Amino acid sequence: MATMESLIVTVNRIQRACTVLGDHGGDSALPTLWEALPSVVVVGGQSSGKSSVLESIVGRDFLPRGSGIVTRRPLVLQLHKTEQGVQEYGEFLHLPKKKFTDFAMVRKEIQDETDRVTGKSKQISPVPIHLSIYSPNVVNLTLIDLPGLTKVAVEGQPESIVNDIESMVRSYVEKPNCIILAITPANQDIATSDAMKLSREVDPTGERTFGVLTKLDLMDKGTNAVDVLEGRAYPLQHPWVGIVNRSQADINKNVDMIAARRREREFFATSPDYGHLASKMGSEYLAKLLSKHLESVIRARLPGITSLINKSIDELEAELSHLGRPVAVDAGAQLYTILELCRAFDRIFKEHLDGGRPGGDRIYGVFDHQLPAALRKLPFDRHLSLQNIRKVVSEADGYQPHLIAPEQGYRRLIDGALNYFRGPAEASVDAVHFLLKELVRRSIAETQELKRFPTLQAEIAGAANEALERFREDSKKTTLRLVDMESSYLTVDFFRKLPQEVEKSGNPTSLSADRYAEGHFRRIGSNVSSYVGMVSDTLRNTIPKAVVYCQVREAKQSLLDHFYTQVGKKEGKQLAQLLDEDPALMERRQQCAKRLELYKSARDEIDSVSWAR
Ligand SMILES: Nc1nc2c(ncn2[C@@H]2O[C@H](COP(=O)(O)OP(=O)(O)OP(=O)(O)O)[C@@H](O)[C@H]2O)c(=O)[nH]1
């Protein structure tokens, strides 16, 4: 069964994972775990004694000192209690494996690390520094030290710093999971203390606020803070704790922390004003109080945190699967990815043709409706008008009119008529071409995996359209050839089966008289017309066959064949160019992946301890 202590240890680990993986709250674009974790945040005006309180809780000098705004990044201070006799040391998250046993070096590292992010500009930054202290003299506790609230910027600092600090502090204390350690010096007006003002605003009922009065030893003679410490003057849900830190003179004299703690104990024990409160005063008591409270808050919040973690993991996984896997770096894997994407597109395109998706049926519409309609509309009436027949036949006869049947006239009339079939043949090819193009466009749009890669998307669309263009050329040649074939050799049987004029009339003299009369030409017209009708029936069947063979079948079988050959010849760099993702998307995937890693490690942390129920 886990002890209470392991709860704080668990949360400490999750907090560290948050910093490693870039979650310090305040980023609304990603779910944050940082903000859900309970923590103790130290707030107070400048010189209120924040650093002194922290050092006294730790029992060590380790915080930077100086004038102006010294704390310029949040310091997440994680205290880990160790066995008696084990050497104390500090360890920074940004310098893992380096144990600081000299606390003066800890102080220097905090300063250096602050400057590393903020520059020497004295700006502030919300990126926390994580410091763990392992010591037998601490209780398990996590405290976050923030820049002191201030009214004026000092030299070299931008005016905005006053507001920047306030918003940073506010962003911490606003969280409902934040336990506020409000530091107020006793020798100032408590009502106007920065810490109390802010905590009242964000926690009006005082349930999250621990009031700490520092500098009790500096109060004017004859005054005391008993009213406050006993909870009458400024009541909070938790008891006020009075503190006596080292004075500046003590610090200058290098009075060590252990001696200072002893002196603090003596101060309360011997004080006529506070003697009766002595067991509930001082920094050691404060540390224990906070540790106990933090544990109980964590315990209460844990179910909520667990469900938040699970929910966020689901959300992030869903988003990541939507964003797709990251692009591989080596050329082989890139080629594989490109081919996979092509295949995904090709699959959808085929589904459109084969009927899994809509659109393919419109091709049949061309054969069933458009082509027959176009054939019906051909102007054979005009071509085979009596007048034109007469003209064509006479011209074909030349100076010597035909004697029996106008062989040449027939041929010319038929040739002229067959020529008209070129139009519908070409139109069918074009109509199917545009339908195929439209299906390519739709298939590209429907290939979700391709959306990430606009360049590849455009290349595939280009290659597919080029291929369709080639198929169209071929199809045109083939269908026109069908028409030309009809002209090049006429169906002999048709004419042989025609009733002979001679037999019909049975009278050769009347035949010759009739030869240049209307009836004769009308018969020619009707013969040509039925021949052309027969060809039309044939072409209505053969043109679709040619179109499907040259365009539809080719599109299904080898739409991207050319493209595959081209891609196969490309070098690594060119392949990478095809897979150039939208940078915003890449960034987002990285962020989501990092955040997912955080949530998963947090889940593992929580799973690894079995909770005392
Ligand atoms: N006598 C006495 N002096 C104190 C006490 N607490 C703090 N001081 C002194 O007050 C000064 C400011 O204390 P710090 O702990 O540096 O205050 P701070 O809030 O961290 O200040 P900044 O980081 O500059 O905002 C130092 O000189 C301390 O020695 C106290 O309880 N008694």
TrEMBL record:
- The domain of life is Eukaryota
Residue span(s) of domain GED: 521-613
Q: For this protein, what reaction is catalysed? A: GTP + H2O = GDP + phosphate + H(+)
Annotated Dynamin-type G domain residues = 34-303
Principal cellular location given in the protein's record = cytoplasm
Q: Has UniProt tagged this entry with the keyword Cell cycle?
A: yes
Q: Name one GO biological process term.
A: cell division
Question: Which Pfam families does UniProt cross-reference here?
Answer: Dynamin_M, Dynamin_N, GED
Where, per UniProt, does this protein localize? Cytoplasm, Cytoskeleton, Phragmoplast
Q: One GO CC annotation, please? A: cytoplasm
- Give the keywords, sorted: Cell cycle, Cell division, Cytoplasm, Cytoskeleton, GTP-binding, Hydrolase, Microtubule, Motor protein, Nucleotide-binding
Q: Belongs to which family?
A: Belongs to the TRAFAC class dynamin-like GTPase superfamily. Dynamin/Fzo/YdjA family.
On assembly, the entry states: Forms homodimer and may homooligomerize and heterooligomerize to form the phragmoplastin complex. Binds to PHIP1.
**What name is this protein filed under?**
DYNAMIN-like 1E isoform 1
Annotated organism of origin = Theobroma cacao
